[in-house]
Design goal:
Elements (H helix, E strand, L loop, with lengths): L1 E4 L5 E4 L3 H4 L7 H16 L4 E4 L4 E7 L7 E7 L7 E5 L2 E10 L4 E3 L5 H12 L3 E8 L4 E6 H10 L4 E3 H7 L1 E2 L10 H9 L3
Parallel strand pairs: 7-9
Antiparallel strand pairs: 1-2, 3-6, 4-5, 6-7, 8-11, 9-10, 10-12
Length: 195
């Protein structure tokens, strides 16, 4: 809580400080917003049609104080969600998960669920394009890690995280851009060989 002192001597406590607004549930929002913006750009220039997947929920209880102010009071997840994004690029199906970590040394595997890993593997095994985009926020480094390399790491290493050096040696660094902010399709072109 921050106490604000105004010039006329009035003191007011501010319960809505910036620190209070940061929560566990909002991790990844910056990366997500940048990917959403990049995908919007790709659609506008008709380069690709990739969308954020909605989280599958079932609404149980809604409060209707008035027609234009309905509030969902209770809902639950119907099935586990798969990955964050999917769509089409150059006639190929594309599917990926985006994650952020504050760690400077590694990406914790606990940040991605087993059903998401299996989903990415299924897409890859059926000739789709699948990968992870991982941002190390404190290092300001964002990587695209191909699914096959990610799966090999999980199967061959008995570790709870992927070290940053593994990303630096085996993944593609995504450089920040202007429009789009995260031009991950430039890397996808390298992966698919410019189809």
């Amino acid at each position: 809580m921050i106490e604000l002192n105004y010039p006329n001597g009035i003191k007011k406590k501010n319960n809505n400080s910036f620190d209070n607004k940061i929560s566990h549930k909002n991790r990844g929002i910056t990366l997500e917003n940048e990917i959403n913006s990049s995908n919007e750009y790709y659609r506008e220039v008709e380069k690709a049609y990739i969308y954020k997947k909605p989280t599958p929920i079932k609404i149980v209880k809604v409060d209707y104080p008035s027609r234009d102010k309905a509030v969902i009071k209770e809902a639950y997840f119907t099935i586990p969600s798969t990955t964050d994004y999917n769509g089409l690029y150059k006639g190929k199906y594309i599917d990926f998960e985006a994650k952020e970590t504050k760690s400077k040394t590694s990406f914790p595997l606990s940040n991605i669920h087993n059903h998401q890993i299996k989903h990415l593997e299924n897409i890859y095994n059926n000739n789709g394009i699948s990968f992870l985009i991982v941002r190390f926020t404190k290092l300001n480094e964002t990587y695209l890690l191909e699914t096959n390399i990610f799966i090999d790491y999980i199967k061959n290493e008995n570790k709870k995280s992927i070290p940053i050096d593994f990303f630096r040696e085996n993944a593609y660094l995504i450089k920040d851009g202007y429009c789009p902010k995260i031009d991950y399709l430039k890397i996808v072109d390298k992966i698919i060989g410019g189809i």
